[in-house]
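Morning F.,

Quick status update on the modeling queue. The single chain you submitted on Monday has been processed. Sequence for confirmation:
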Amino acid sequence: MTRIRTRTIDPIISVDWLKNNLNLDNLVIVDVRGTEDYSAGHIENSINVPFERERGWAVARDGLTLEVPALTDLVSTIESCGISNDSLVVIVSAIPEASNPPFPLADAARAADTLIYAGLSNVALLDGGYPQWVAAGLKVTQAVPQVKKSTFQFNIDNNMFVNREYVEQHIGKATIIDARDADVYFGVTIEEFAQKAGHIPSAKSLPASWIWNKDGTYKDKQVLENMALGIIGYDKSQEIIIYCGVGGFTSAWWYVLTQLLGYESVKFYDGSAQDWVKTNFMVTYSWTF
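Structure tokens below.
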């Protein structure tokens, strides 16, 4: 089962909420944009931990692009941000141009998922990211805050991530969700890191790109709920395994399903298609096995 923790902050927060709560003693704002973007301007007191930083939020390991960092590196990242177990952490992202893939939004979700995996209860995503804050005319700064290193008591969720063997054993038993774009799912397009067309047998298509509006904000909860119900079904206790290309888009649906919509048993196949195709076939042009 997905570990359910008691929240005191919504999983997706507005710029108005953040503006009105900037003075909370336990608030930690983590900006996962690149260093240059952060240096040009950021929300006051936000800490920059760029997503692309090796050993920060994800690492390349064993020929796979996005894997969970080693515990020692994750400890270093979290404590260097001043995050403690009672912190309210808000993740701030960039927003891509409408014509570009929503990778920065998935990166923010990946950072949030990693904190949840480590045992943090109160993690939120800033809806619309940094551009939404700027568009609202709210204060930005170039001053870099001084951060006091914290001590964090880890409570790793060992049931969150699954490997290839687990997925192989649960075909036909769990609901498997492919978070890649539909043309990749059907095999019309082959992603360079997967090198085989199609999808894992029995997987259903639920593209992560459907999660967001064109301005990078999240679609209304009811819209997301209807998407999930239409593909996954009404049983929120069923086992679900999500994968994508390398583990990026998986992050977004894992976050939405578990933190926003209340699905109780959602697994994260970290290696995703990049790992699967090493030893297995894919299904093309079909919704069925």
